[in-house]
Amino acid sequence: MSTLLLALGLVMIVEGLAYALAPSLVERMLEMLRSLPEAAVRQVGWLVVVSGAILVWMAYWLGT
Q: 18, 26 in Cβ contact below 8 A?
């Protein structure tokens, strides 16, 4: 449970920093996402999910 809370906290920090430091960049990125076809956005989403899973697995592997 503590690892899950740690991961969630780290995601919140990174997301919050993006909005705090570069809100106009976030707005431009959202507009760009709106212009992409749904299939492309879905592919990017799955790519991020798989990349995140690989990073979590690597962190677990390095920590043991």
A: yes
Q: What is the pLDDT of residues 8-30, one digit of tens each?
A: 999 999 999 999 999 999 999 99
C-alpha 49/C-alpha 37 separation (Å) is 19
CA distances from 63 to 6, 7, 12, 22 (A): 15, 15, 22, 33
- The pTM score is 0.70
Q: For residue 18, what are the domain limits? A: 2-63
Q: Domain tally for the chain?
A: 1
How far is it, in rounded angstroms, from Cα 28 to Cα 3? 33
